[in-house]
Structures are given as structure tokens and as C-alpha cells.
Amino acid sequence: MTKLTFASHPFLLGFDQLERLVERTAKNGHDGYPPYNIEQTSEHAFRITLAVAGFCEDDLAITVEDRQLVIRGKQADDNEGRVFLHRGIAARAFQKSFVLAEGVDVAGAGMENGLLHIDLKRSVPEAVVQTIRIARK
Fold first, then answer.
1. Rounded distance, CA 67 to CA 24, Å?
2. What whole-number distance in Å separates Cα of residue 119 and Cα of residue 77?
3. pTM, entire model
4. Residue 29 vs residue 128, higher pLDDT
5. Please, which residues bridge with residue 115 across strands?
6. DSSP state of 21
7. Which backbone phi and psi does 5 adopt, to 5 degrees?
8. Which residues contact 97 (CB under 8 A, 6 or more apart)?
9. If DSSP codes are grouped into helix, strand and coil, which group holds residue 107?
10. Where are the domains of the chain?
């Protein structure tokens, strides 16, 4: 028996890429570090906020790779000569990924009080009606 997948439904033509995105997102396990929020700031705008205390702008990289927003953080090792009696502040490297829908783009990013804000905007396409001429064969 053949397994019927989302993209193989006869009425959903050309959605195989969407199915691959869902599979890629499911494989991208989120371990909870660093903690983050996602909020809708307007009808067509979103903001992702990551708590990145201890990281500076140079320690962070934000890229969009194949419709996937990737945020990476890696701090320089400056522990030479330091002796910690307790170390409760995480200083580990991280990578967070978010799949962006078609038409969602990064509008900008900024740091404020140990929080990294990434603003996203969705462009609203105009409704297009296309008439297809039927050719005589």
C-alpha cells in the first residue's frame, strides 16, 4: 500500500517543496537555548526575540539560507586565568532556525538590554486574475 503524503494529494500541485520544509523543520530540534519569543507586531509584521545575555553583536550571525532564518551565537573564550566557584550563566554556542514562508523577509535586527530582536515583514501580493486562452488544435 502506498503512503499518501501531503504533497501527493491530486489537488495540491507543486507543494512538494512545502512538504520538504515541514520535514526539515521537524528535524531541526529546538533545545530551548537560548529562550525566545515570537510575536505579531502588526497585521503583516512579526518579531523574534532571543535572550542572548553575555553575547555582543560580533558574537552573533543572522543569515537566511533557502527560506530558513538561521541565528548563530558563539562567544570568544575569555576564561583564561578565571576560577569559577559557580557557573550558572550559560556561555555555550547555539544555532536557532526558523522556516520563513514565501513572501516573509527579514526587515532588520537589533540588540537591546541583552535581547536580540529580529523583525520580519510579509509582503502582500496583489490579487492577479489570469485568463487562459483555449487554443484550437
1. 11
2. 29
3. 0.72
4. 128
5. 51, 112
6. H
7. -100, 170
8. 25, 28, 68, 69, 70, 71
9. strand
10. 31-122
